[in-house]
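Possible regression after last week's pipeline update?

I re-ran a chain I had predicted before the update to compare outputs. Posting the input and the new output here so someone can diff against the archived version. Not blocking, just want to make sure nothing changed silently.
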Amino acid sequence: MYTIERNYGALTGLNKTQTAERLGEELVQGWRGSLEKKPPPLDILNDPERYLQYYPGYDRKYADLTDEQIPLTESLMDCMIRTKPLYDDKIVYELKKGRNVLVVSISYIYIKLYNIYIYICYESNRIESYRI
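New output (post-update):
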């Protein structure tokens, strides 16, 4: 199992609309839409109950990772960098073999994969025939 879910830090589990009403639409959209901006991290000192509930390290699918490898918040760019090896080693590998790849996820994961694809094409100065 591979997870390419973004870590929203202290915003994890919160309703987007209520969070925008409480903190401001512009601030929330900045965290959600910016490649570089990160939401506030999970904070064990100021909110231990949320930390205990949402800290990814307590999920057994991350059991082989150290605490240092588990982010407490991520920007979109952090998430793209973290998931690029999956894209390279699994998805692109299978596509180059001529195989079909089915990625099942929510919409922003597809956007993230597309952004990685466009970035790779831009950096390598070539366009490949992969369809995402």
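Follow-up from reviewer: compared with the archived run. Residues 127-132 have pLDDT under 50 and may be disordered. Marking as no regression found.
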